[in-house]
Amino acid sequence: MLVRVVRGCRSSLTTLLLTTVATLVGLFAPNFYRDHPVLLPQIYGQDLLTLVVGVPALAVSLYYADRGSLRGYDVWLGVTGYLLYTYSSYAFMTAFNELYLVYVALLWLTLFTFVGGMVRLDAATLKRDLSGTSVRPYVAFQLSLAVLVSLLWLSEILPATLAGTTPPAIAEAGLPTAVIYSLDLGIIVPGFALTASWLRNRRAWGYAFTAVLLVKIATLGGAVLAMIVFMILDGQVVPLPQILIFGTLTAVSLVLMGRFLVAIDPESDPVRAGTS
């Protein structure tokens, strides 16, 4: 199995190194970020979660994936997806700083690893392992997330569009546009909807993307909660319903992720034959 996963292993090891450097510098170098003050707590929260959860999770899952664990492989891809999302936003939205090229490198590395890993994933084996598991909770959760994220962002975008103004979140941060709107509405929401549809029809790739998205949402949810903590410490007002919603979504994603991973046969091979 070492031979089969070694390409992803090399890029992931580089990702681990660069991510560790980027987060440590971001967290501990004085006045490193040049972004608007309202954004800084969010960036620090993201860096902290990535350092204390994302990096160890990637290292451990890579270890097990490289030894033939389908569970480890799924988590590895999910954490890679989280880092792809994270450093896409850093590369496109964070104010230019000395780590800009590192963000671009991480964007490329995680994209390369994620696509290559998904192509080689044995989705049919994953479907077989979960054949006795009800898909309804996973379908409902992903559709609910798609609806909630859409409503959250459209509630800011549509009023501003109709009024010919800029959404307050963009104006307050001094941004020309919101990269997060684009990533979520252009990629994440359609991804949830399509995956839920595939899973409802018990298509193999529905199981594959569900596994990856559950890990991604669990880590991203943790990052959002870390951002909220930093925002509160900074004196910003965070509505209680928002805290409860993100806390609940993160908890539910962790429970569903755990159930999904436990259902996978520990002996299952993660990589399709002929793709090594």
Automatic annotation (TrEMBL):
Any keyword Membrane?
yes
Instruction: Provide this UniProt record's keywords sorted from A to Z.
Output: Membrane, Transmembrane, Transmembrane helix
**What stretches pass through the bilayer?**
12-33, 48-65, 72-93, 99-119, 139-158, 178-199, 211-233, 239-262
Instruction: Supply the name of the protein.
Output: Uncharacterized protein
Which organism is this entry from? Halosolutus amylolyticus
